[in-house]
Specification:
mainly alpha, single chain, globular
């Protein structure tokens, strides 16, 4: 009870997060059988314990972050931007005996703790906070294209450019989210169109370059192209194994599903506990279970909009949109892939799929959301000169 009294912020978001986390144990335990027989001794319990540890640490992150005044994230985004850039560079150039220097990776191993970490997920959170900070800073000013190139678009293209070679889908989603946040923040549409056109040209040049010189980055561009071809039905069915098994699982589930733990396709579907867990959920809980999950994410989106509307500062409103919208957007991308509305992207289902980094970064974003919502009343009481009372905010205003 003492813990409940110490939590702050939007209680509905706390409830949604807790319910999604609790529900996740059912499909993760069921779907982990594939991993258990592939990488373990056939026992799924260890994977559930691992999932519990990931969620436990995630809720520790939520609790710690939501206690921080959200104004602190202005300065923290400036400090963390070069940090994530260095992490992405390290990830890009790490090699092992089975890899070449240019065949990029997505993960780094954390020493001593035995966990792997995906820097791109941290980079997406930091970048959205940074963009929200910049847009709030220029909110009441006349915006010119030239003035935003170095402080806004140079960091955006720099971070996304470091992610793009190894993870096209994540880079594309990040770019789209930045554009959405910039549009919501009042950045002129004509400038966004110009930036978008430049980004598209760079992507085309990148693909043409590595198609002409395939040894520069083995497999990556071919992987992107093959996923698009499979989605368009231009590839062999044997190369489309995952999506075919996901469709079978969804078709089998029908309206009510087979029941908890009774999925058949979990034994054949790779990534059944992460990228394609939504297909397993529908197979076991039917269309009813799938629609309930969709409603939960829509409910979360609704609360994000409420928090943005109620925030008394421009930064608080933009931060809520920039941090909350990608969670819901990622969820619907994951569901869209499972039902073949979208090509395979490798995006997990937030708070449901197994995997440490995705859970932790989702919890980090939720903690920031709760920090904004916890300041509803405080914002009205703060004098204007108190917004810069801590060193991190002073740093943010100076830059």
């Amino acid at each position: 009870m003492k813990f409940i009294k110490n939590i702050q912020g939007d209680r509905t978001i706390w409830a949604i997060t807790a319910l999604l986390a609790i529900f996740s144990f059912l499909p993760v335990y069921s779907a982990a059988s594939n991993l258990a027989y592939t990488y373990g001794n056939g026992q799924t319990f260890s994977f559930v314990v691992k999932h519990f540890m990931h969620l436990f640490l995630g809720f520790v992150i939520i609790f710690a972050v939501h206690k921080l005044p959200y104004r602190y994230f202005k300065g923290l985004s400036i400090i963390m931007l070069p940090v994530v850039a260095l992490l992405l560079l390290y990830t890009m150039f790490q090699i092992d005996s089975s890899d070449s220097l240019t065949n990029t990776k997505r993960w780094i191993s954390l020493p001593f703790v035995g966990f792997s970490f995906q820097p791109s997920t941290l980079a997406s959170v930091v970048l959205m906070v940074y963009v929200a900070r910049y847009l709030s800073k220029i909110h009441d000013k006349t915006i010119t294209f030239k003035e935003g190139l170095i402080p806004l678009w140079l960091p955006v293209f720099g971070i996304i450019g470091l992610i793009f070679p190894a993870n096209f889908s994540t880079a594309a989603i990040m770019m789209f989210m930045v554009f959405v946040l910039a549009f919501v923040g009042g950045y002129p549409f004509k400038y966004l169109a110009l930036i978008g056109g430049a980004a598209l040209v760079m992507v085309v040049l990148f693909i043409l370059t590595f198609k002409a010189f395939p040894d520069l980055m083995p497999n990556r561009v071919d992987t992107w192209m093959s996923r698009v071809e499979r989605f368009r039905g231009e590839d062999n069915a044997s190369d489309n194994y995952q999506i075919e098994k996901a469709k079978i699982a969804i078709a089998t589930g029908q309206i009510r599903g087979l029941g908890p733990g009774k999925s058949r396709q979990k034994n054949f579907l790779p990534q059944s506990s992460s990228d394609f867990i939504f297909a397993i959920i529908i197979e076991e809980y039917g269309l009813i279970g799938g629609m309930m999950l969709v409603l939960f994410y829509l409910w979360l989106l609704f609360r994000v909009v409420i928090i943005a509307y109620k925030s008394q500062t421009v930064f608080g409103s933009l931060l809520s949109v920039g941090i909350g919208l990608p969670i819901v957007f990622q969820a619907f991308i994951n569901m869209g892939v499972a039902v073949e509305l979208l090509p395979v992207t490798g995006q997990t289902l937030p708070l449901i799929s197994s995997g440490g980094t995705s859970i932790w970064m989702t919890c980090l974003a939720i903690g920031i959301l709760l920090s904004v919502s916890a300041d509803y009343g405080k914002d009205q009481e703060l004098p204007s000169n108190r917004e810069n009372e801590n060193p991190l905010d002073v740093l943010s205003e100076a830059l």
